[in-house]
Write the structure tokens for this entry.
Amino acid sequence: MMNVAIVAGGDSGEYAISMLSGKQVEREIDRGRFQPYLIEIKGSSWSYNYDGKDYPVDKNDFSLHLAGNHVHFDVVFNAIHGTPGENGKFQGYLDMLGIPYTSSDVITSALTFNKAFCKNVVSRYGILTPHSVHLFKRQQERIATLTDTISLPCFVKPNNGGSSVGMSKVTSVEQIPAALELAFHEDEEVLVEEFIRGRELTCGVLRSKGEVVTLPVCEIVSKKEFFDYEAKYTKGMADELVPAPVPDHVSDECRRISKSLYDLLNCKGIARFDYIHTNDKFYFLEVNTVPGLTEASIVPKMITAHGWTYTELVTRLIDECL
Ligand SMILES: Nc1ncnc2c1ncn2[C@@H]1O[C@H](COP(=O)(O)OP(=O)(O)O)[C@@H](O)[C@H]1O
Ligand SMILES: [Mg+2]
């Protein structure tokens, strides 16, 4: 039996979603092979909750002391969306201890979590991405002259964020200051990005048994202005259609680009690539290296459409990183 630490929680607006992802993995994991321990990571408090009691993690070697039993982990299943699980910080800690984990490594996580830096690299590989301006809080002059460089409508988003927290769609110059304030409240860096009108498509990719597998493409049809926090997490506020109702050549192209990006960015585990598709062109928005794994999340729908069970996904992700 292998001991698996499922880490969840984290220190962002995605804390609650991450806990749900972690619990779903704990529920679905193959108990015949794996003994799961759901570990909550929150600030400096890392703990395993069992029978209503919290057991702190021993950070010296990422182990647990449970009533006379010292538990070490063979592998970590990473279910932390946002910091510190999706930006490489936790990966660095695990690398230092030599514990394998199911997601991308330090450099890939750090790069891809930074939307602006990631877009720069992706566009060097010849893939389109919306024009954008990357601003740091200290750059007051650039911020003041922003309207000269960006066309409207645009999106203003925290550069290192997720779940659409702190993000707004701006249609007039007067809305820019408030949008910047909202985004800078979440992050020291902000991305101001050209709005692309089109259909939103997303593709899940993983490596398993020596092969890069692309999952059926999903179309996101939000009932809100865009796929904002409410649309993401309120039942009925968005349709997530898998397989996407688009012509085969469109979904094939989406899978082809996603597979090549997965490889070029050296992703590990399951990653989900988001695009806007318009005029037969794909505009890369971002890649999620720890995508949602709750019952209602997109990846589980893709997995079902692919003909796998959730349990099989978890098993494949663990086997692949060992
Ligand atoms: N440049 C853009 N053009 C059109 N829609 C966008 C653009 N950027 C973001 N969106 C919309 O906002 C949503 C969230 O943006 P995204 O960059 O993926 O941030 P997050 O990391 O919060 O998911 C997308 O799913 C999409 O609906
Ligand atoms: Mg997104």
In short: The mean pLDDT is 96. The two ends are 14 Å apart (CA to CA).
